[in-house]
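Example 3.2
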Amino acid sequence: MTQTLPQGELGTMPGGTPVFYIPATASLQERRPRTLKHGDTFAVFDHNGDIVSGPGSPEGLFHSDTRHLSHMDLTLHGARPLMLSSTLRADNATLTCDLTNPDIYRDGELVLEHDLVHVRRTKFLWRGACFERLGIRNFSGAKQQLRLDLHFAADFADLFEVRGNVRKKRGTMASPSVDEDAVVLRYTGLDGRQRLTCLRFEPVPDRLSAENASFDITLPPHGNCTIFIEITFAEPDRSASPARLFRSGLREARHALRDSSSRMTAVATSNEIFNEVARRAVADLRMLVTDTPEGPFPYAGIPWFSTAFGRDAIITALECLWMDPDLSRGVLRFLAARQAATEDPEADAEPGKILHETRQGEMAALGEVPFRRYYGSVDSTPLFIVLAGAYYQRTGDLETIRTIWPNIQAALSWIDRYGDRDGDGFVEYGRRTEQGLANQGWKDSHDSIFHADGQLARGPIALVEVQGYVYAAKQAAAALARALGEVGQGTQLELQAEALRERFEASFWDEELGTYVLALDGDKRPCRVVSSNAGHALFTGIAAPERARRVASTLMDSRSFCGWGIRTIAAGQSRYNPMSYHNGSVWPHDNALIALGFARYGLMNDAARLLDGLFEAASHMDLRRLPELFCGFARRPGRGPTLYPVACIPQAWAAVAPLALLQACLGLRIKPESGVVCFERPVLPRCLDEVTIRGLRLNAGSIDIQLKRHINDVAVTVLDRSAEIEVVSIR
């Protein structure tokens, strides 16, 4: 992701290099906005259902990285209604806000006593449009005459402007057009594209201008009325009314979410709060998934990253592969279709490299930011191969692997030719454009890679986790090559992986630290820092077993494990700051990968501690959602975790982290070639006494399984199965 700095404009590194970041001028956690998404459209509302954007505020209705509505608020007789409740449906299909009137005075006289009129706002997004229904009801025994106003505006700001980047020049706003029931706001960008926001109302407003729709409403005693609003990004289409489109769209949106969720394995437990966390995780994933020609693809997060990120999508797919293999297939096909084929230094692109990020906004189109189609990540390429291998292990779908095998070969070629920049056998990164990201691992803040004394590392930099990803990629590619009949290449790849493992152990292990170092800098000096990155060496299997146990012990001591999760950087390190983006915070996806690594080495109790900690954190969060990250302050009795001010929420790889953590604790392995579901040394965390898994797909069948805690064991019971699927529990 892009780093966070506490300024309000585009920052620069020493020497004038641009730094892209999220300004910390307003706290998302303080606002706790309500978010909706469908496809390339997302919306950020306040708890009233209004959009009240301001400096540092992400509120707005966005489409294709442009804010198409920067303001929309509802008033009754010029006063803001009082909020009663603000609720997202459990499946994220709709936002419902219940409001009531305050005391309304006119010329010093009370003309409407509070709490007599109820307004229910129901909002949802569907197929490039935002729909709203206002249900207005009079609960008094007298006739009420109301003036309801909707004030609106569109600044057509590029998402990077909303994030804090200051542009020297912008496009031009055209004169709005106002019809009887519709307003169209227009902007022509410097890229030559015209962008529109069309608002249609039903019934026809009593007064309509380019900034306001006003309704004079007469409600009989206990009477009610309804107003419908449709917001689109094209010229008005009058083939159907806003009311009809609202009803049909809501029905279709709910059916689509239900259908996509039904593909996933269902989890229920003995802990109802954990069930809420799991249900929200699935709902958030389904909301963030965008249907593409290649299949389902999870956008990274709202508000700043609602677009395709290679690394995020791959890790998200890996985290929930056991529950939803279709998502992995979509991610693999999407990224294969956008793999770099030529060198393009301005995009940090090289043949075989996998996408980092893509953007559709005006600034990206003009090159004001380099992210139109940007390849500046060192780990997306090996992780692409890792996902391909894991997908095949989970499904046995050789046909998909055969289809993307040329892409896997190209990725392997990139690793050997471009990834190893200095020929030392390790994969390093170093950007090819000064506009690109300075650090290109998952910790991409400008200050996230440093030496023990706090000095920033000079590139090209070889990260500890990236060597593990490359090792796992070559092991995965070896297995795929053999499955495709390429036995010789498979043997060669295995030998390369083993040689890398030996080099890695010799160069990255630090006996005094009791863990692997964070990185090697451009002079091959080790960055002797205790970091969570080393835990990824366990996830990939590159760590020697005896050293894996040492790493786990280091990560689970109080310097790294804060009680909620493992910090990115251990307390006591030179740049440790529990309020930083990458230097002491807790990232759920990071912990999930580490937990899967613990399980690989049989460290099940450590995996269970991580699940307990992150579950307890989620139980304190609004809507039971784990955010992108939270602060790494030590856990204290009677207090929840400390939130990070501008963390995205929902964030795909954070949303599904509890599902990966559960898999780690259960030691769940799925073997399609033998039709076996295997639980290796399963444990249940302290928070769970029972777990029921329903609809776990394997080959052409599915199975329902229950795991139940006994005194010193976990019992595994088959509840139902639709095919010959064997369940094995290894203790």
